[in-house]
Design a protein that fits this description.
With about 230 residues, this protein is mainly beta. The chain has two domains: about 35-120, Pectate Lyase C-like; about 135-225, 3 Solenoid (Pectate Lyase C-like). About 5% of the residues lie in helices and about 25% in strands. It has one helix at about 215-225, and strands at about 30, 45, 45-50, 65, 70, 85-90, 105-110, 125-130, 145-150, 165-170, 190, 205-210. Strands 1, 2, 3, 4, 5, 6, 7, 8, 9, 10, 11 and 12 form a twelve-stranded parallel sheet that branches.
Length: about 230
Amino acid sequence: MSSRRTPAKRASVSPRRAREPRSPLPPPELELFESAELESESELERRAFYSLSLAGQEANSLAFTQCRFRGADLSGCRLDQVAFTDCLFTDSSLANVRADGGSMTRARLAQCRATGLTWADGLVRDVTITECRADLSAWRMTAFDAVVFEGCNLTSADFTNADLRGATFRNCDLTSAVFHHADMDGARFRGCDLAGVGDLSSWRGAVVHHTDLMSLSYGLAAAVGIRIEGDDA
């Protein structure tokens, strides 16, 4: 059994080069997890969580390594200081999970539901999140390094004080998302709906594809005090 790793809180403040996330390391074999309960300070390695409901549980300082979640229900769990390393999530629910101070390293999430997920003051590194519903999710004070959101619903997501320098958003719905005091130097956006995003003063250094500027235009105009009137004015 590997030693327990403490989740890192913030990534380095030095500039980052954009890169694609590294892939999770595959387990040599998997053992089905058949327990109905999660226990605090447990280390779970090479476990398969298939069509299993663990909803509403509370456990802290859990470490999941080379685990696979397929059709798993973790909705409503409180998992502070959790660490997911080399894990895959497919068609699973993380809705309303609260995971303060957690880390996710070399992981992939695909077709998952994460509405209302709270991942605060944590670390997300080498992670791909694809076609997931993560509206109303909260990522306050979390550091992102080599993270790609692709085809995700992130409406009204909260990235307040997040370090997004290593984040890329492709074809995501970010309508009314909040970026208050976020560090966005180098964060990349392409094919995204950015209508109504909050606090554009934090967007200095962000890289936005030219096709996305239209959805940003009203917010940018308001930020510099431009008033827009219609033909009937």
